[in-house]
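Fig. S4 source data, part A: sequence.
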Amino acid sequence: MMARKVFTPDDPVVPMSYPGFVFRVLRRQGYPTDALLSKTGLVEENLESSEFRTIFEPVRCLFENALSATQDPHLGITLALRI
């Protein structure tokens, strides 16, 4: 039996598919890139890449920025309905 890989919070394993979707939708709605990416360490190209992976913290920060920018406590549900 193959040993399972155990990931740590420092392993860049989070893909950009959903964070990229959130970013693109909010950008189309007029929210500024600077506000969405503030303090994430991410750049727009990261969110467009199917190859890029990151740790959880920048993604958490992106989602917090999105919630702050939109002031929509139901943002996750609102965006899920668009998928």
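Fig. S4 source data, part B ends here. The CA atoms of residues 31 and 70 lie 8 Å apart.
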